[in-house]
Design brief:
By secondary structure, this protein is mainly alpha-helical. The radius of gyration is 18 Å and the shape is globular. The protein contains six helices and three strands; from the N terminus they run H-H-E-H-H-E-E-H-H. A three-stranded antiparallel sheet has the order 1-3-2. A hairpin with a 2-residue loop joins strand 2 and strand 3. 60% of the residues lie in helices and 11% in strands. Helix 1 crosses helix 5 and helix 2 crosses helix 3.
Length: 152
Protein backbone atom coordinates (compact mmCIF):
# COMPACT_ATOMS: atom_id res chain seq x y z
CA UNK A 1 0.00 0.00 0.00
CA UNK A 2 1.53 3.36 -0.94
CA UNK A 3 2.29 5.89 1.76
CA UNK A 4 -0.30 8.72 1.87
CA UNK A 5 2.46 11.33 1.93
CA UNK A 6 3.84 9.97 -1.32
CA UNK A 7 0.46 9.23 -2.92
CA UNK A 8 0.19 11.72 -5.80
CA UNK A 9 -3.61 11.61 -5.67
CA UNK A 10 -3.49 13.02 -2.13
CA UNK A 11 -6.01 10.37 -1.05
CA UNK A 12 -5.45 10.22 2.70
CA UNK A 13 -8.05 7.44 3.01
CA UNK A 14 -5.28 5.09 1.85
CA UNK A 15 -3.49 5.72 5.16
CA UNK A 16 -5.54 3.95 7.83
CA UNK A 17 -2.82 4.39 10.45
CA UNK A 18 -2.48 8.18 10.43
CA UNK A 19 -3.35 8.40 14.13
CA UNK A 20 -0.70 5.85 15.02
CA UNK A 21 1.84 7.60 12.82
CA UNK A 22 1.08 10.99 14.39
CA UNK A 23 1.37 9.50 17.88
CA UNK A 24 4.68 7.82 17.04
CA UNK A 25 6.06 11.03 15.52
CA UNK A 26 5.00 12.91 18.66
CA UNK A 27 6.82 10.40 20.88
CA UNK A 28 9.99 10.67 18.77
CA UNK A 29 9.92 14.48 18.90
CA UNK A 30 9.25 14.33 22.65
CA UNK A 31 12.36 12.14 23.06
CA UNK A 32 14.47 14.74 21.22
CA UNK A 33 13.23 17.48 23.56
CA UNK A 34 13.74 15.26 26.64
CA UNK A 35 17.33 14.63 25.57
CA UNK A 36 17.92 18.35 25.10
CA UNK A 37 16.59 19.21 28.58
CA UNK A 38 18.14 16.22 30.37
CA UNK A 39 21.15 18.13 31.73
CA UNK A 40 18.73 20.57 33.41
CA UNK A 41 17.04 17.59 35.09
CA UNK A 42 13.66 18.45 33.54
CA UNK A 43 11.48 16.74 30.98
CA UNK A 44 9.91 18.22 27.88
CA UNK A 45 6.60 18.46 29.76
CA UNK A 46 8.28 20.47 32.53
CA UNK A 47 9.86 22.71 29.90
CA UNK A 48 6.52 23.23 28.12
CA UNK A 49 5.01 24.51 31.37
CA UNK A 50 8.00 26.78 32.01
CA UNK A 51 7.99 28.13 28.45
CA UNK A 52 4.27 28.84 28.72
CA UNK A 53 4.46 30.88 31.93
CA UNK A 54 7.65 32.62 30.78
CA UNK A 55 6.08 33.54 27.43
CA UNK A 56 2.54 34.40 28.59
CA UNK A 57 2.83 35.27 32.28
CA UNK A 58 0.81 33.97 35.19
CA UNK A 59 -1.88 31.47 34.19
CA UNK A 60 -4.30 28.99 35.68
CA UNK A 61 -3.37 25.32 35.49
CA UNK A 62 -6.30 24.59 33.16
CA UNK A 63 -5.16 27.32 30.75
CA UNK A 64 -1.62 25.93 30.69
CA UNK A 65 -3.08 22.48 30.04
CA UNK A 66 -5.16 23.83 27.15
CA UNK A 67 -2.17 25.66 25.64
CA UNK A 68 0.29 22.75 25.98
CA UNK A 69 -2.01 19.80 25.32
CA UNK A 70 -1.04 18.24 28.65
CA UNK A 71 -3.71 16.96 31.03
CA UNK A 72 -4.55 19.42 33.83
CA UNK A 73 -3.68 16.77 36.42
CA UNK A 74 -0.26 16.36 34.80
CA UNK A 75 0.31 20.12 34.82
CA UNK A 76 -0.67 20.22 38.50
CA UNK A 77 1.69 17.38 39.44
CA UNK A 78 4.60 18.79 37.42
CA UNK A 79 3.93 22.28 38.80
CA UNK A 80 4.40 20.94 42.33
CA UNK A 81 7.76 19.48 41.30
CA UNK A 82 8.80 22.72 39.63
CA UNK A 83 7.62 24.67 42.66
CA UNK A 84 9.82 22.63 45.00
CA UNK A 85 12.76 23.56 42.76
CA UNK A 86 11.74 27.25 42.80
CA UNK A 87 11.17 27.24 39.07
CA UNK A 88 7.45 28.01 39.48
CA UNK A 89 5.38 29.95 41.98
CA UNK A 90 1.87 28.78 42.84
CA UNK A 91 -0.90 30.75 44.46
CA UNK A 92 -4.65 30.54 44.83
CA UNK A 93 -6.65 32.18 42.06
CA UNK A 94 -8.25 35.28 43.61
CA UNK A 95 -11.43 34.62 41.58
CA UNK A 96 -11.64 30.93 42.59
CA UNK A 97 -9.65 29.78 45.63
CA UNK A 98 -9.94 26.15 44.46
CA UNK A 99 -7.91 26.94 41.33
CA UNK A 100 -4.17 27.56 41.24
CA UNK A 101 -2.29 30.26 39.39
CA UNK A 102 1.23 29.52 38.20
CA UNK A 103 3.97 31.99 37.43
CA UNK A 104 7.68 31.72 36.74
CA UNK A 105 9.95 31.57 39.73
CA UNK A 106 13.26 33.40 39.86
CA UNK A 107 15.20 30.29 38.83
CA UNK A 108 13.01 29.95 35.72
CA UNK A 109 13.90 33.50 34.69
CA UNK A 110 17.57 32.60 35.17
CA UNK A 111 17.15 29.59 32.84
CA UNK A 112 15.04 31.36 30.21
CA UNK A 113 17.82 31.95 27.68
CA UNK A 114 19.06 28.37 27.95
CA UNK A 115 15.53 26.95 27.69
CA UNK A 116 14.88 29.08 24.58
CA UNK A 117 18.17 28.01 22.96
CA UNK A 118 17.50 24.33 23.64
CA UNK A 119 13.95 24.56 22.27
CA UNK A 120 15.14 26.37 19.15
CA UNK A 121 17.93 23.82 18.59
CA UNK A 122 15.47 20.92 18.61
CA UNK A 123 12.98 22.87 16.47
CA UNK A 124 15.73 23.62 13.93
CA UNK A 125 16.58 19.91 13.77
CA UNK A 126 12.90 18.95 13.36
CA UNK A 127 12.37 21.57 10.62
CA UNK A 128 15.36 20.15 8.72
CA UNK A 129 14.02 16.59 9.07
CA UNK A 130 10.55 17.62 7.92
CA UNK A 131 11.80 19.70 5.02
CA UNK A 132 13.95 17.07 3.33
CA UNK A 133 14.16 18.20 -0.29
CA UNK A 134 10.95 20.29 0.00
CA UNK A 135 11.72 23.54 1.81
CA UNK A 136 7.98 24.32 2.01
CA UNK A 137 7.20 21.11 3.90
CA UNK A 138 7.59 22.59 7.41
CA UNK A 139 5.01 25.31 6.62
CA UNK A 140 2.63 22.73 5.18
CA UNK A 141 3.03 20.57 8.27
CA UNK A 142 2.46 23.58 10.54
CA UNK A 143 -0.77 24.35 8.63
CA UNK A 144 -1.90 20.75 9.04
CA UNK A 145 -1.10 20.75 12.76
CA UNK A 146 -3.03 24.00 13.17
CA UNK A 147 -6.10 22.27 11.75
CA UNK A 148 -5.73 19.55 14.40
CA UNK A 149 -5.89 22.08 17.27
CA UNK A 150 -9.67 21.70 17.39
CA UNK A 151 -9.41 18.07 18.47
CA UNK A 152 -10.74 17.50 22.00
Amino acid sequence: MPDAASDPSGDSSRDPDIGLRLAAAHRRADRLFNQAYRHLDISNAHAQILHTVLDFGEMRIVDIARRTGLEASTVGRLAKELGRRRLLKRRADPRDARARMLSAGSRAHDLRTELDLLREGVNRRLRALVAGPDEGAPSKLADTLDRLEDLP
